[in-house]
Amino acid sequence: MGSETSVSRFIGKFSVLFFGVFIILISSCSKEPVRQTIPDPVPPPDDSATYANGFFIINEGNFNWGNASITFVENDTGIAYQQIFQQVNHRPLGDVAQSMKVMNDRGYIVVNNSNRVEVVDLGQFKTIKSIGGFNSPRYLEFIDSTKAYVTNLYKDICVLDLTTLTITKTIVTPEWTEGMISYSHYMFVTCIGRFSEPCSKRKAKLFIIDTRVDEIVDSIQTSTEPVGIVIDKKLKMWVLCSGGWDQYEHPFLLRINPDLRQVEKAFTIPGTGVPSRLNINPSGDTLYYLNGGIFQMAVSDADLPSQPLIPAGGHLFYGLAIHPGNGSIFATDAIDYVQDGMAFQFSSSNGALLRSWATGRIPSFFCFGEVRYRKSIE
Prior knowledge:
Blueprint (H helix, E strand, L loop, with lengths): L4 H14 L4 H4 L27 E6 L9 E6 L5 E2 L2 H6 L7 E7 L2 E6 L4 E6 L5 E5 L5 E8 L2 E6 L4 E5 L4 E6 L4 E8 L2 E8 L11 E6 L4 E7 L4 E6 L5 E5 L10 E6 L4 E7 L7 E5 L5 E6 L1 E6 L18 E6 L6 E5 L6 E7 L6 E9 L1 E5 L11
Antiparallel strand pairs: 1-2, 1-27, 2-3, 4-5, 5-6, 6-7, 8-9, 9-10, 10-11, 12-13, 13-14, 14-15, 16-17, 17-18, 18-19, 20-21, 21-22, 23-24, 24-25, 25-26
């Protein structure tokens, strides 16, 4: 997302991670986009079932331009189909597509600056319902097959009924909430602080929500801008703190005990970058994050990696994901936030490039289908 030219450019650069003060701009572009002719996209697959045999790349588009889009990549052929939402529904997706999750043959696309969640049928990708009423939504996480939480940039966490596709209540917080991870009957939510305040005044933390009653029951203080959260095979949580878009403090990678609700270890990330996009592999033993290049770290390592597994090499890496099945690395290149981007698949063993695809404008998020998260036994 992006907002004003200069700020947007900076934030877009460090996107999601980010997120510093202007995240709404974050996900956007960095400078006033130049209108250009876009070639006709490949038509959607004839076989509607194909949408269940591939993955989606969510393209943010430029802030305030309403040119967000979805790219679908077919597993068998490797063909990338562009603008599938617009092709099927005969209307634009909206302004700044932030993320997407899948549950029960439905896709939930969070469209940040349009303040809505688009619910689509994965059979043909047709809209089932456009849900409004959000405050610049960021990410959606399922509690079960009937309920989900949606974080927001400006305030509150929305509780979404997946049966009626309505917001049934809000969990009140005047602060910017971002990533989420489920653990037992709790949801741990990263909170960056008030969007309107500078990094130096924000009170970063993890909210702990009891999902049985939809109430915040505790919190854990973190370093500045906790922008990513995952859980490993030993049920330890890892939180990536970017340090602030203005580099207010050093970025940190924190290991947290979710039962004791305490920070067990804090790794200081060296350099002058703004790290982002924390991920973990399917077996839960290896972490990945962006900091210029793509870094890989075993959860058992005593120190952070000194060199990236995959150097940037001229790419502007913007999105990062690990395939939930085979563990391969997927990354996007936003290029210059003006022209259409690229997506890549790399080997997790040696970082070798396996495949690449053209995408829409500012590709940032991958959706591989339903993912089951590790939980402790209740």
